[in-house]
Design goal:
heterodimer, A: mainly alpha, two-stranded antiparallel ribbon, globular, B: mainly alpha, 5 helices, 2 strands, 4% strand
């Protein structure tokens, strides 16, 4: 996989390597943390609830969904369903990385909380996952997201919208860069095209969250093509 | 308990369980050989779905906006073997410039 070297997917393993790998993304994560803090304040969430949610849920899209459903007058139940659907992708993601975790059940449960899209994507190594890279990257993301939320709660809407700075375009770019080394393989390309096709087809048809979950079915092409 | 705190507590607990289930239940077990070929392909399938939804989904609609332009610019940077930081910056700057003039 010579192409893999162009991506700054560090060959080194370790917590520091994970933190370094995620650093380019931290300005965007911080900015979205700030905007979550601002929006949730505007929706009447209260500063403590916003910050506690970032510390305990640590998943941007689900948190934004809860705030938008409830600020539009939706019930807590509707907000919970939306958020759980959005976070359901973490089930298969965490299962794929399960072999990397160490120690007893409690330690695995705690360390698995640092798994989010970006730390999962950055910690892939040679068909497996590097636990220290996942934890290092996850801690950087956690600090950025929670710290950003606290800043947004305190500063209010005096800060710039991250979309003005184009920071919302940073996330698809990151995932594309991490996908690039995986698609020279025919099976990888087939899974990627099918995954993207399923997600785009379902986006207008199903609640948010379902398209990405359904896209995981694309990995079943691995059954036939072994 | 207010409905806000109820949502915060339930979503937080559900997320802990969703993320923890695989790593906790699979502790000390080796996944069957047949699942390896499938789980290998989870990465390209999910990454491609995340690219697609982060760039083209807006709630439950497909949209072509500045994020799509940023993604196209990022794609060129990837083809030119730019480092990850540059790929991200190119996407953000492209989207920001288009929004500024749009």
């Amino acid at each position: 996989m010579p192409d893999a070297t162009v991506i700054e997917r560090p060959r080194l393993s370790g917590y520091g390597a994970g933190l370094r790998a995620v650093t380019p993304l931290l300005p965007a994560v911080l900015a979205f943390g700030v905007s979550f803090g601002v929006l949730s304040q505007a929706a009447g969430f209260g500063g403590a609830a916003s910050i506690v949610m970032s510390l305990t849920t640590f998943a941007g899209s689900a948190q934004f969904a809860v705030v938008s459903v409830m600020s539009a007058g939706g019930t807590a139940a509707a907000a919970i369903v939306a958020a759980v659907l959005l976070n359901a992708r973490y089930g298969p993601m965490a299962l794929s990385a399960a072999g990397a975790f160490r120690g007893g059940r409690l330690r695995r449960l705690v360390e698995a909380q640092l798994l989010v899209d970006e730390s999962w994507a950055l910690s892939q190594r040679d068909g497996g996952f590097d636990r220290r890279v996942l934890i290092g990257a996850g801690l950087g993301l956690y600090a950025g997201w929670s710290g950003g939320t606290a800043i947004g709660v305190v500063a209010g809407d005096s800060l710039a919208d991250p979309a003005t700075l184009g920071l919302d375009a940073a996330f698809p770019a990151l995932f594309l860069a991490l996908l690039a080394p995986l698609v020279p393989s025919r099976r990888g390309m087939a899974a990627a095209l099918l995954g993207a096709g399923i997600a785009l087809t379902l986006t207008p048809l199903t609640p948010a969250g379902i398209p990405v979950i359904a896209a995981t079915a694309a990995c079943l092409v691995g059954l036939r093509r072994r | 308990m207010s409905s806000v705190w109820l949502a915060v507590a339930v979503v937080g607990a559900a997320t802990v369980l969703i993320k923890g289930a695989g790593p906790v239940l699979a502790a000390g077990r080796t996944l069957p050989e047949s699942s390896a070929g499938v789980l290998d392909l989870l990465a390209p399938a999910l990454l491609a779905a995340l690219v697609a939804t982060n760039a083209f989904a807006s709630d439950e609609a497909l949209v072509l906006d500045e994020r799509g332009a940023g993604l196209a610019a990022a794609g060129i940077a990837v083809l030119l073997k730019a480092p990850l930081l540059l790929v991200i910056v190119v996407a953000a700057v492209t989207a920001a410039l288009l929004r500024a003039i749009g």
